[in-house]
Specification:
single chain, 279 residues, alpha+beta, Fructose-1,6-Bisphosphatase, Chain A, domain 1, D-Maltodextrin-Binding Protein, domain 2, 2 domains, 7-stranded mixed β-sheet, globular
Length: 279
């Protein structure tokens, strides 16, 4: 099979696994486990990741795999996969229909790279294959700078370190006052997909893992979005590959359309400085 054919087979696999996630979501006796970092995992997380890893090891045997629920695999090719079988697990457990299956294959260039984000409840599937743009099924999206309703909506996606909760809350107030709306949807993959499809204006990310944002970053870049990264206290446009950016967890990233990017960075500065946590 060609890379395009394998991609479309994978999209179908993700959507089929989404049917299983939806059935689990609607079941009355869901059981979860708490992991060492305080996050939760369900059996369907594990099952979906097994299905995805099985496909990858069959069709892309030389690629490296980084998944949330497994030990992963170290390959020999230029490509690394980032898999989150259920991004937004807290929403999933509470039967809030805002979660997604998130998959990205990232190389040093867009050639052979792609991303898929699928919400099993709304049946929305967002994809980007190499440099062919962002598709929501048959709709092709290109980011624009229009702010719907005159109020920008900026999402906040943060980790669990002690300083991050107060920083997020203080940022929420500041962003809301300056831009119009600050939101916590608790599913970074979908928030990024919604930026790529002109539903949300931007997102500040800090303290998360690469599999939380890899696929969404690829969608946003494919749609013409801007990505900036905070390094050594200074914001700068990301000029390297997304493979390089996602090589480590915990990056501080801002993604948006051009209409708010510079103003948002000027407001946010260093997210840690917004925390009033003294410990």
């Amino acid at each position: 099979m060609t890379i395009e054919e394998k991609f479309h087979v994978l999209v179908a696999l993700v959507e089929n696994e989404g049917l299983k996630a939806r059935a689990y979501f609607e079941h009355n006796e869901n059981v979860s486990e708490q992991k060492a970092d305080g996050s939760v995992v369900t059996q369907i997380d594990k099952d979906i990741e097994v299905a995805l890893v099985t496909f990858i090891r069959s069709e892309f045997p030389d690629d490296t795999i980084r998944g949330e629920e497994s030990e992963g695999y170290i390959g020999t090719s230029d490509f690394i996969w980032h898999i989150d079988p259920i991004d937004g697990t807290d929403n999933f457990l509470r039967r809030i229909p805002f979660f997604a299956i998130s998959v990205a294959r990232l190389g040093s260039t867009t050639d052979g790279s792609f991303a898929i984000i699928h919400n099993p409840i709304t049946n929305q599937t967002f994809t980007a294959l190499m440099d062919t743009g962002v598709h929501e099924r048959s709709t092709l999206h290109t980011l624009n700078s229009e702010i719907l309703g005159g109020r920008a909506a900026v999402a906040i996606a943060r980790g669990r370190d002690a300083w991050m909760k107060p920083a997020g809350l203080n940022l929420q107030k500041a962003i809301a006052m300056d831009f119009g709306k600050a939101i916590f949807y608790s599913c970074t993959a979908l928030e990024l997909a919604y930026i790529a499809s002109n539903r949300i204006d931007g997102i500040i990310i800090f303290g998360l893992s690469s599999y939380d944002y890899a696929a969404g970053l690829f969608l946003c870049k494919a749609g013409g979005g801007l990505v900036s990264v905070l390094r050594d206290g200074v914001w700068a446009p990301w000029q390297g590959s997304l493979k390089e950016l996602c090589a480590r967890h915990g990056e501080v990233i801002f993604v948006s359309h051009a209409g708010i990017h510079a103003d948002a960075l000027a407001l946010i500065k260093n997210p840690r400085d917004w925390s009033d946590e003294t410990a």
